[in-house]
């Protein structure tokens, strides 16, 4: 048991810190969903890409730096610690791209991956539908295969980054007779195709970016199917595990939220109730950080203990608890707090609070995670279906 | 970064499991409830023969010179088996305090005997009003204010108390002034000794919590109600998932704290408090869910679940309760601003 980073890892951390210090955007960026904001974000993404920092853990043939899982972990920590802008193409970088790497052909990798890295394509995930939230086996968007073309009809909803995305990785039902998770296909759809309509959808914290996406007779090359036609469930499970499995610097953001809470607690006079609650939350934030380490250790040693549901469920709930306590400590001030963070970040507590509540819903709601833990980790029987 | 125990550390825990099946089974525990000492000579002999008494004793005092990490998995198994003995105090807190804060004369007097099992230590870092196993121990380490002291228990007056857990033997101890010896290095060592107690007790709690959930997961797969096993009901599953998630995350913190305490890391005290608090929460939830999901059968005297339920409730208070630990950690966080 040795919980210290190696000298090489520490040197890598310093190299990153130096680069971020020198190159970080000055001042606050506007929202990427506004025109000036989008160019500001693109400028930052271009700088990252030019220096090889766009996706350093990706293989070098895909434009990355072949970083090992611990180096990637350090990168994510430092990125969060510097409070750098949220990645414009995070759905492509974290979920879509790695799924193509895992299941795509060489040709598909060459076709799709470079556009993610330089942000010439911005990806979104098309899993959710009005009738299928956490129940992805209920997708109804259809893909009718006609020769080399798949004709897509249907609707996706709650699509993050949908407003700026050019590319969607989606689940569609290719076998109309099928039910449940059979007969579903994972396909990449160019949202600039005729028949695609993207309608912005407001989010409850007021930040734009959400969309509903309608498909009417949209023609997609069958060559865009990742894995086999009808095998989309297996392909999507890679993407879902990526979405809920890794902490991606979330432990650092949680620690920052705790430090913000501690400051507000001190400013409010450190009454015994608040100090006790701070201690309780500090304990769980620390445990979450250790879970992030342990999960990275599993990945780095090539073992396969699956902590993804634990990390997703408790991580989101601990973060919400920290935010809730911060509102409590701010008292009436919580209602009128600023939109931006104390360091002039784009996102302040108000957005982060509601975003955290959203995190308990997305990537498989926490109720679904509880079922997964009970069934997969504890071996309890599935609930009979009516 | 190496987040893993050594094979020898796993082997030691597995060896303890085998021994515990014979000397610390629920049947043994029940048999001891009505005996005068409540303690088993066989159990203590097994502990000493495995060398557990020598692990944290330094090499120059005939110990193994090991650390809390060497004992972390064993402490978890001690909780798992709800061993009827105050082993945290005997194997960790007492010897560590004497080794870190004692004079060389005190160390020579007590530590070799502790290492070979002929002398038993106990500890009371939170007052002399409830000291575990004082009746079978030879030496007591206790805290007064910010300093640690040692006393030969044969010179102290003991008043037996009745514990909620019939396997716990607690005593009010009166140390006559002439029997009290200060541990001269206590100012420097106090924080580390407290960290050992918090971190070690967290390991025991995790073992208790996991066992209660293991028991309950087994039970809900055989108990049928409304025509199917109750483990298929979402209301049951979610309670077990909640408790399990807490145990899994808490265990990561507990292991990290043991490593930090062993390495004397700067944040060892902080990590050990966090470990105790999350382990307490995990045990609290496991305790609640285990009895609730067992239902009436879990409430019967004949069912063994009570052994873990009561040990858990006792140990929730014994080494700093949820509120105390959180108060201390919260103050520590504010001090870092």
TrEMBL record, chain A:
Residues 6-117 form the Acyl-CoA dehydrogenase/oxidase N-terminal domain. Pfam families: Acyl-CoA_dh_1 (PF00441), Acyl-CoA_dh_M (PF02770), Acyl-CoA_dh_N (PF02771). SUPFAM superfamilies: Acyl-CoA dehydrogenase C-terminal domain-like, Acyl-CoA dehydrogenase NM domain-like. Keywords: FAD, Flavoprotein, Oxidoreductase. Residues 124-216 form the Acyl-CoA oxidase/dehydrogenase middle domain. Its cofactor is FAD. It comes from the Bacteria. Residues 230-377 form the Acyl-CoA dehydrogenase/oxidase C-terminal domain. Belongs to the acyl-CoA dehydrogenase family. PANTHER family: ACYL-COA DEHYDROGENASE, ACYL-COA DEHYDROGENASE FADE29. This is Acyl-CoA dehydrogenase family protein.
TrEMBL record, chain B:
Its cofactor is FAD. Residues 7-117 form the Acyl-CoA dehydrogenase/oxidase N-terminal domain. Residues 186-321 form the Acyl-CoA dehydrogenase/oxidase C-terminal domain. Its EC number is 1.-.-.-. The keyword Hydrolase does not apply. Pfam families: Acyl-CoA_dh_1, Acyl-CoA_dh_N. Keywords: FAD, Flavoprotein, Oxidoreductase. Transmembrane segments: none annotated. InterPro entries: AcylCo_DH-like_C, AcylCo_DH/oxidase_C, AcylCoA_DH/ox_N, AcylCoA_DH/ox_N_sf, AcylCoA_DH/oxidase_NM_dom_sf. PANTHER family: ACYL-COA DEHYDROGENASE, ACYL-COA DEHYDROGENASE FADE28. Belongs to the acyl-CoA dehydrogenase family. This is Acyl-CoA dehydrogenase family protein. It comes from Janibacter alittae.
